[in-house]
Design a protein that fits this description.
There is one protein chain. This protein has about 140 residues and is α+β, with helices and mostly antiparallel strands. The chain folds into 2 domains: about 30 residues, no CATH class; about 80 residues, no CATH class. It is elongated and about 60 Å long. The chain contains 5 helices and 6 strands, in the order H-E-E-E-H-E-H-H-E-H-E. This is Reverse transcriptase domain-containing protein.
Length: about 140
C-alpha cells in the first residue's frame, strides 16, 4: 500500500467515524495525478488544466463546420470563442474572431455575419494546432 493510499484510508475512516457516508460510486478513492472534473482534466504532475480528447475532437469539428460556412450567427461565434478560451486562456489566440464579433456589436445575436479572412486563418490555425495548444497552467491568472 502506497503512502497516498494509506492516507486516503485514514481520511475515509475519520469521515465515517464522524457520521459521513462515503458514496463510493461518486468517489475517486484511488490516488491519481490526473482526474477529469467539470469537463477538464486536472493534472497535478505538470500542474495543468486541459480538455479531454473527446472535447478536443468535438471542438475541432465545430471549427471546421464554422470555417466551411459562408455566414454564421453571432451567437455561434460567441459560443465558439468561449469554448476556445477554455482551451487556451491567452486571448491572443482568438483575437481575430473576437474582432469580427465586436465589429458587429449591437446587432441581434441571431444576425448572420461573414468571417474576415484573418478570422478564417485563425480558425484554420485552431483546426491544425488544437491538440498542441490544449492546456494551461493551474496557477494562471
Amino acid at each position: 500500500m502506497s503512502e497516498a493510499e494509506y492516507h486516503s484510508d485514514i481520511v475515509i475512516d475519520l469521515l465515517e467515524t464522524h457520521g459521513f457516508i462515503i458514496n463510493e460510486s461518486k468517489s475517486q478513492l484511488t490516488p491519481s495525478r490526473s482526474i477529469e472534473y467539470l469537463g477538464l482534466i486536472i493534472n497535478s504532475a505538470p500542474m495543468i488544466f486541459s480538455a479531454p480528447d473527446y472535447k478536443i475532437d468535438e471542438l475541432r469539428d465545430e471549427c471546421i463546420d464554422i470555417y466551411e460556412q459562408r455566414y454564421i450567427p453571432i451567437r455561434i461565434l460567441t459560443s465558439l470563442i468561449s469554448k476556445l478560451h477554455n482551451i487556451v486562456k491567452d486571448p491572443e489566440y482568438t483575437r481575430e474572431l473576437r474582432r469580427d464579433k465586436h465589429s458587429h456589436q449591437g446587432k441581434d445575436q441571431y444576425s448572420l455575419i461573414q468571417l474576415s479572412r484573418e478570422a478564417k486563418d485563425e480558425l484554420e490555425d485552431w483546426i491544425n494546432n488544437i491538440e498542441e495548444w490544449n492546456g494551461y497552467p493551474i496557477n494562471a491568472t
